[in-house]
Write a structure and sequence with these properties.
- With 327 residues, the chain is mainly beta.
- It contains 3 helices and 20 strands.
- It has helices at 7-13, 101-104, 288-314, and strands spanning 2-3, 29-33, 47-51, 56-65, 71-82, 89-91, 105-107, 111-114, 118-127, 135-145, 150-154, 157-161, 164-173, 181-190, 199-209, 218-224, 232-234, 247-257, 261-271, 275-285.
- Strands 3, 5, 6, 8, 10 and 13 form a 6-stranded mixed beta sheet that branches.
- The longest helix is centred in the C-terminal third of the chain and has 27 residues, at 288-314.
- Residues 1-23 have low confidence and may be disordered.
């Protein structure tokens, strides 16, 4: 049985994970800022706009059909968000409630049909409320296919998917700008081997954008053991674009932890403008399974010795013959 379109799946096509600048292109259509009439030194990759509260800003988005047949797209504005577990950049789906820049965006056409190997420029207006907070408001202009063009499996059921591609919009509302970051809940965990060998482990931490500007922070994690010995980290630090007020949990893997160790994980995040934050965690590594076996063996040995001592104490003494009295 073929299920109905699942909007949540479409959100994945919007870029739920950080992506390079050309990510507004899925190979079949692309969505980008309309180039200016007089080409500048480089095309715009995203919309970077500014406006005071209570005014409007206008621009245009270009939808390019890369396929060999015409396509019809549904256009709408959407709020951006960071995924809670990896900091990915996502945009709200068409049926989600927008409360920020997505609600302020009015696209010139609800739908547009683009001929094969052609393109269409569609204007849009962002009306900034008079009570809009200063700082960055981030969203996107989305072009979602009108008819589902792909299927995927979910719990053994074919689910039709409406794919979507979007151009990011960064709107800065005039007023005081306060960048800020915070690192929270740094934790370190490790395996519990039976033998006293080096073990693998992992770390997690939260990064919070406490200011009103979007920040792509530089993430630095340092993990050391007892006496400062080196513990190897695996993988590279993720590249995230953290939105104002957003909080995300990041993680990584390590190896080379000693069976008896004191592991210190230090996380530092920095961003332009002199913004920085740091936090650390220290955890003691003990091979509890091995220690439990050793303790159990010692307890057994002590009990056996006590039993032997008790047996020796309880052994009856041999009575000596009574002395004979000679008269």
């Amino acid at each position: 049985m073929r299920a109905k379109v699942v909007a949540a799946v479409a959100a994945l096509a919007l870029g739920a994970v950080p992506a390079p600048a050309h990510a507004a292109d899925n190979g079949e259509w692309s969505v980008n800022p309309t180039p200016p009439a007089q080409a500048g030194p480089a095309p715009r990759l995203y919309f970077f706009l500014e406006s005071p509260p209570g005014t409007s800003v206008q621009d245009s988005v270009r939808v390019t059909n890369l396929a060999d047949q015409p396509r019809t797209f549904r256009l709408y504005g959407a709020d951006a968000y960071n995924t809670p577990n990896d900091g990915g950049f996502g945009l709200r789906t068409a049926d989600a409630a927008n409360v920020d820049i997505g609600a302020w965006t009015q696209v010139g056409a609800a739908t547009v049909t683009v001929p094969a190997k052609s393109q269409a420029d569609v204007p849009f207006v962002i009306t900034v409320p008079a009570n809009a907070t200063p700082g960055d408001h981030v969203g996107g202009v989305v072009a979602m296919e009108e008819q589902p063009g792909a299927t995927t499996k979910q719990n053994g059921v074919d689910v039709t998917v409406r794919r979507a591609v979007a151009a990011r919009v960064y709107l800065r509302v005039s007023g005081p700008t306060i960048p800020g970051l915070r690192v929270e809940r740094v934790t370190t965990s490790h395996d519990q081997p039976w033998l006293p060998t080096t073990v693998d482990g992992s770390y997690t931490y939260d990064v919070v954008n406490t200011g009103n500007l979007h920040l792509p922070p530089t993430l630095s994690v340092r993990v050391t053991g007892l006496f400062g010995h080196h513990i190897r980290r695996h993988g590279t630090a993720p590249q995230i674009d953290l939105l104002p007020g957003a909080k995300t949990r990041l993680s990584g893997a390590v190896s080379g932890v000693w069976p008896f160790d004191v592991v210190t994980t230090s996380v530092t995040v920095t961003a332009d403008g002199g913004v920085s934050a740091r936090s650390q965690d220290t955890t003691v590594v003990v091979p509890w399974p091995t220690l439990a076996v050793v303790v159990a063996g010692l307890v057994l040995l002590i009990r056996q010795r006590r039993r032997r001592a008790t047996a020796v104490t309880a052994k009856p003494r041999r009575r000596l013959p009574e002395p004979v009295t000679v008269r």
